[in-house]
Amino acid sequence: MNITRTAHEWSKHSFFSKAQRYAEKMLEKNHSDWEFGFWSALTLEILVRASISNISPTLVADGKDWNNILYALDKTPNQKKFIAKSADISDLLRRAESLFPDFTTEMLSFSLIHINKRNSELHSGSLPFDDVSSSSWMPMFYWVCKVLSESSGETLSTLFGTETAAEAEIHIEALRDASAKSVKGTIHAHTVIWNEKTEEEKEQLIAQAELLSNKHRGHRVQCPACNSVALLQGSSIGVPRNEIVDDGIVEKQSMLPSSFECTACGLKILGYSKLVACELGNTYTATNHYLPMDYFGIDIEEEMRAAMFEDNNEPF
Predict the structure, then answer these.
(1) How many other CB atoms are found less than 10 A from the CB of residue 141?
(2) 293 pLDDT band (50/70/90 cuts)?
(3) 193 & 255 share domain
(4) 57/50 Cα distance (integer angstroms)
(5) Looking at the predicted structure, is the pLDDT value of residue 294 above 70?
(6) What is the pLDDT of residue 303?
(7) Are residues 32 and 104 in the same domain?
(8) Assigned domain for 307 exists
(9) For the whole model, what pTM was predicted?
């Protein structure tokens, strides 16, 4: 008789499969949703365990009780009412820093903070993932996931899927791009010029920017140089989400910013990495409302002409 052996719950396979499950839940949410951040923290915590277990499940065990190590070796501890306990995530993150050369101190600090938000979400009345800009944590999150996935013998593609992995590489590259930080000097220069204008000139330019920055032309944001209304342009990422409403279909598409323009002070910023450097890199949602005929490409006049020649009353 063949007996199918299931993987140990502390094995790399079990942990990584669970990380994939959490990542799938994360990707069901828009970047601006609090649940997107929440599930990302859960994904990260399990991925840390998967990467360490890939070396040995014993490294995941809480070393305060040697029976936990015995359990990690797939042995049954001879202790009554034994409940296996893995090490605290803070300890595991410090082990990861020692075990993986590419897992930097900066990554350790980010991971501790990000996972602690998950603890606050579950064990307090605070809302740590509400109103948090995605650009403030998502690039580093994906970079940490890349390092840990590769340390597990996996890739970003096996964790998130090919499409999201490609998006993640854009975020990571933006974080690595040190030259992008020069954009702050450009912003400062525009601020100086703006402050030299008279109040009357400012009022006219602010009113003009308000008029020209139509939300149908882009995503409205506040200019970092003059605080006027300005526009972000971007490209679509991921699959659009559709919702049927009373008068039609609402399509919501996540967008990755690629350019910024302020008509008030003239500031222009091109490139996602530069937008991230000045905190304009948050993904946003483009919403379109369609009538059913437009969404499905139905030509009403053609349908009516065809109906005029149909006869559904012919005898059998």
Answers:
(1) 23
(2) low
(3) yes
(4) 9
(5) no
(6) 52
(7) yes
(8) no
(9) 0.70
The whole domain housing 216 covers 180-295
In a domain, 76, yes or no: yes
Question: Is residue 44 within 8 Å of 141, Cβ to Cβ?
Answer: yes
Q: What pLDDT band is residue 1 in, cutting at 50, 70 and 90?
A: very low
The reported pLDDT for the residue numbered 66 is 87
Angle at 112 between CA 92 and CA 138, to 5 degrees: 120
Domain stop point among 138, 153, 176: 176
Q: Is residue 191 part of a domain?
A: yes
**Residue 258 and residue 117 in one domain:** no
- Rounded Cα distance between 273 and 87, Å, is 37
Between 77 and 292, the more confident residue is: 77
Pair of tokens at residue 11: 């094995």
For residues 100 and 180, the model is more confident at 100
Q: What is the mean pLDDT of residues 194-216?
A: 92
What average pLDDT does this structure show over 54-75?
90
Statement to judge: residues 155 and 215 lie in one domain: no
Domain boundary among the residues 176, 198, 225 is at 176
